[in-house]
Fold this protein.
Amino acid sequence: MALSFIFPRAFTTSATVTADGAYAYFDGAMLQYDVEHTPDKYVAKLIFKAGNKHTGNGRTSSATPPYHYHPYQNEHFEVVSE
């Protein structure tokens, strides 16, 4: 059952692929590297450019995951600052 009517419509952008295989969003302000992808697990590394209007404004940034709900799966995040 789709629950998209519960959550506001998210701003979306298309991705380009960089020379090192990352998906670049918001003109490179957010890079996504696929680390592991199996039928049971998906792991990605995301790099957000500091100070960019799309990635550096906390919850008001454009580059946030759309609000969503997983009734039958868990979602875990590990935030690492480099």
